[in-house]
Structure of Succinyl-CoA synthetase subunit alpha:
Amino acid sequence: MTSLEHIDGLIAPNSVAIIGASEDPTRIGGRPIAAMLKAGYKGRIMPVNPKRDTVQGLPCFASIEGLPEAPEAALVAVPAKFVPQCIEALGRKGCKAATLFSAGFAEAGEEGEAAQRELMAIAARYGLRLLGPNTLGVYNVEIGYYGTFSSSLDTGFPIQGNIGIASQSGAFGAHLGALARDQGLGCSVLITTGNEADITVADAVRWMAASDSVDVICTYMEAVNDAPALLAALDVARAAGKPVLALKSGRSAVGALAAASHTASLTGDAVVADAVLSEHGAIILRDPESMMDIAYAASKKVFPQQHSLGVVTISGGAGIVASDEAERIGLPMPAMPDAAQAKLLEVLPYGSPVNPLDCTAQALNEPGLLEEFTRAGLEEGGYGAVLCFLTYVAGSEVLSKVILEAMAPLREAYPNRIIAFCALGEPAVLKRYDDAGILIFNDPCRAVRALDAVLRLGAAQSQTSSSTLSAHQPVKVPATSPDEAEAKVLLAEAGIVPPPEQAVHSAEEAVKVAEEIGYPVVMKILSPDIVHKFDIGAVKLNIRDMDGALAAHAAILAAVANHAPYARVKGVLVAKQISGGVECLMGINRDPTFGPVAVFGLGGIFVELLNDVALRACPFGPEAAREMLLSIRCAAILQGARGTEPADIDALAKMLSNLSIFAVGIGERLVSIDLNPVLAMPEGQGAYALDAVIELDSEEVVADVH
Amino acid sequence: MTSLEHIDGLIAPNSVAIIGASEDPTRIGGRPIAAMLKAGYKGRIMPVNPKRDTVQGLPCFASIEGLPEAPEAALVAVPAKFVPQCIEALGRKGCKAATLFSAGFAEAGEEGEAAQRELMAIAARYGLRLLGPNTLGVYNVEIGYYGTFSSSLDTGFPIQGNIGIASQSGAFGAHLGALARDQGLGCSVLITTGNEADITVADAVRWMAASDSVDVICTYMEAVNDAPALLAALDVARAAGKPVLALKSGRSAVGALAAASHTASLTGDAVVADAVLSEHGAIILRDPESMMDIAYAASKKVFPQQHSLGVVTISGGAGIVASDEAERIGLPMPAMPDAAQAKLLEVLPYGSPVNPLDCTAQALNEPGLLEEFTRAGLEEGGYGAVLCFLTYVAGSEVLSKVILEAMAPLREAYPNRIIAFCALGEPAVLKRYDDAGILIFNDPCRAVRALDAVLRLGAAQSQTSSSTLSAHQPVKVPATSPDEAEAKVLLAEAGIVPPPEQAVHSAEEAVKVAEEIGYPVVMKILSPDIVHKFDIGAVKLNIRDMDGALAAHAAILAAVANHAPYARVKGVLVAKQISGGVECLMGINRDPTFGPVAVFGLGGIFVELLNDVALRACPFGPEAAREMLLSIRCAAILQGARGTEPADIDALAKMLSNLSIFAVGIGERLVSIDLNPVLAMPEGQGAYALDAVIELDSEEVVADVH
């Protein structure tokens, strides 16, 4: 079945059966009924309970078989052991979508996993889609559908709006929903996916991307259980212009451990997930608060193309605090053009017309100043967003009317820009601004961060995204991991260049090859059994003549005989010694979730101490590789910082792109590739992989698994 | 007059005169009267206005002279040009404290500065203390004193509590006050210092440190106008156990300087201020929100000694998000002891007893679980704080009673630990927890950050602070900046060791000295006029014998003759060539606010690209220097990362401490000292300053200034 089939029935059903319906509105089987009755759900509610004639005033049915029609959705609130027979009965009845509140499945150990597989098998026979098990369910505010037992509804129903929430964790999803409500923010749907036996967060995102009722998608994930589907869903959302905000937990050592024991999922490497999800346009977040702030800002559907901020303030201090935050997070605050500054100085000689634009406390006497400074920021400053720091002044009952009157016309004159206030006061007063399309934040720094995220979205939408590659040739690799010389031959065929080099099998041959290549050369042992060649003396550098070559060859063989007498020796590699340039490393790791992921960094401490690396899912073209190279913190070193020549970034980018294509070509047997060091020579002089290790699963192992 | 004299009269006066009193409660001269009448200020309010008999129902006086008594405080709300005569009259009348609302002084250019100096002169004659001018004033909630015209009071009065706010910016200070109020947080005083002609934020902090009504001090500063007083005030506050939270704006100006590679320009104002203020115990913040969060947490006056967090959760997801945030900011979350885990697993087999402690949604049915898990975290886990993620569950009217009943006894059983909830719901419901001593946050990550800050305070209180040095000898320095050889002699006397070296004045002498020192040596020109010696070829390395020495000497003189023919040549420096070790730099920069500040970093890209430096105000002892060395991000390199030997950190620390003492000894003529590179040899082998530049103001210049 396709991933979206019958999901509409789960999220926006015309009828729903509650299996294990309860009269008690605080029990799992009673809460959804009570909520739907209260919210005025227009669909048919069919309680199922053999022991009752009515439930909460509704006619109750003794069995699934006895239902008067196939329910579009079913809510299953019975103990785990009864779930299989319910699914069977629902399937036979013709129900195509069931939400399984019941716990005691994959999250509860091996037996539960087996039970969950059994559920899936039954559901598959009937083409029945499952949400859960171990889910808190779904709500759909517009139609009053509350297929959930969340007690978050005890403190109030959600406000209707255009934000959709998809969460693996039920309680955390409901927390996001309640947080939105408490902040006056409107939601459309909440979908919690629990164990994700069938429907995943990816499916929920895909549904929201296509739904008219959702404009902003908030997601919480502990593990990505279906990476291709998730990335495809992100692409669809991006194409639809709907921002996806992603909180992926399990970053910390403690967090990762806890995530493994929660919701039956294993968290992948969070850093890889961050990189891959943001490649596909997701905004990666760490905390619910910033998620709601950005969702709020994005919910107005104004995404200016200018990634720049103007700050208009009645307090110099607040202007500086906001500017500091903007600089910290990289949101540009360009100065106003000189002419515009001069004009504003004429209007208010004691003001500051640069940016922040300080119209001083005089704006309390003349709210027109606020309008004038803000208009200048939008018009002459050309800022994507103008943030006005008005604090309690905006919350004043009297002034709020004057301010709104002055500012509302600007909202209409500049429909594609953002006007935001930092304001304190009664929610009812502040809501008037919001209703007029002016964003309201109570903290200047939170405002700056949320605006930055939305402005980045707008700027990204106006760029063509760097193309990812889809076509690639299969690469033929040996049955077991190749040695260095073999690896370099494979890599060279893929356009990843080693220095001139050749494997030799005698002292005479070593001298001959060295003379062909030209001194100075390096020599190193070729053996699949010796990993730390350098440490045992099986690498020799600075070989400058025949005597040196003979001596080095003998010394290497002696070192191996001495330190690794049982190693398989396949020869000695003689290579041109290349010096100068910038030492880098690049490699591939097969991520369990996202497949081969390329990593790039500078050599030495940059990676070891600073962890200054860039990641990207394979494959990708040279342009994307170039972006990746330049995204590391110390990219300036490649560009010629510290008085050295700029490195050949084009060659490096081509090599990295080729490596990413090569990695995908190898397929599932690839474990990792390690090119360390890669020497990036000065501009125009290329880049060389000086060492290469390719690790493969051996053919038999893979055969075993499949 | 001492810095605290008469400040009580400003902040907690028994009587107040309003000069320029207005009948209109929305005007500057009317607002304070209206506010005090409304708040029930018990002191005598004496309006002064020649045109009226009464003001807002109070008897009004025609002049300051005509007041029936000397007011303890005066509020001056007249145009700038009338302020001097008011001060004069107030002084004659015997008033000792005036708050000057009037603007148009130092903030308004040179004329205003002169006018401000005039005010100060008049005030000084009468021993009259001034707040402002250009201040929004003061309020003191407990006594209902509102010596302010802030319109923040239009949206409500502050709640009485134990937080004090001192702000240079009026509007920003009032924003903090309004923010506290809107969050249900109690304040004691707000003091805004405006132009700080007399009373500064330092004085306000000092007053709050001594005041019974303030337990937590929040400060906002744009410039530190009286550094010694501020640091002394911070020390008093620390000794009194009162946390000082500091928001120092103006960071972004630093960004522009950061690129420069000279030691002196590595230390921007804000970075230095951060370093120095936190040395004195201040908590440095960037945004009002975190300030209020930490103030709230600290206002309970519980500062556990354990810097560790336990998270109890009903949602695995939230537990992970909180853990991720704790790890990100370095708040330890140790696992529960095995025995305690086993016990909790018996209680709840499906729970997770490690940390986060997940008592699952089962806690909704059995609130006793929440108590049991929290108790275990406090007792067996020994955590300084336990954060319970309860979200909307805690906000439920019904459950809140049960939860409070279960948890309140823990609050009493563990008075020196923190119990906090992440909770959503009606403020009135949540306040019940707060009243019982349980902290309430609505965001788990904000909660983690605020708890971390308070736990660090507790941990810091239980440590002895690293001693700063007070005694130091004056250092005699030449009339102008010394050359390298002279600088090194001075430094050597202060215990900052150069390699064996000597200045020479002929080729023969060069050879003789080189042989005494022992080859290899380096040679470099000694000239006050040549800064970039290396670039013009006036430095020679790897000199291995007599021929080399003669050639190098000749080459250096030739290079100078060629590239810098007019430079004053004082000789050639012959020095032992030292290699190996870790390249560092250390230096001193005289900060305009805080005096000599030491900077330490590793050489090369560490400083240039990563800006990885540590700063500390001079002087300090070797222990503080050691902390400083080890506080840089790449300290692992000093400790022997990357397979190299650990560096002689003791020698480096001693050198840095000696340098800090030396810098203070030089006194005000010191501009900067630059030791770059310093070579830290392997452990036990010392550290050498290979190059040294001391920049002094010449004696005449200093004489001019004083």
User: Anything to note?
Assistant: Residues 487 and 610 of chain A are 29 Å apart (CA to CA). Residues 262-267, 702-706 of chain A have pLDDT under 50 and may be disordered. DSSP finds 25 helices and 29 strands in chain A. The first helix of chain A runs from residue 7 to 11.
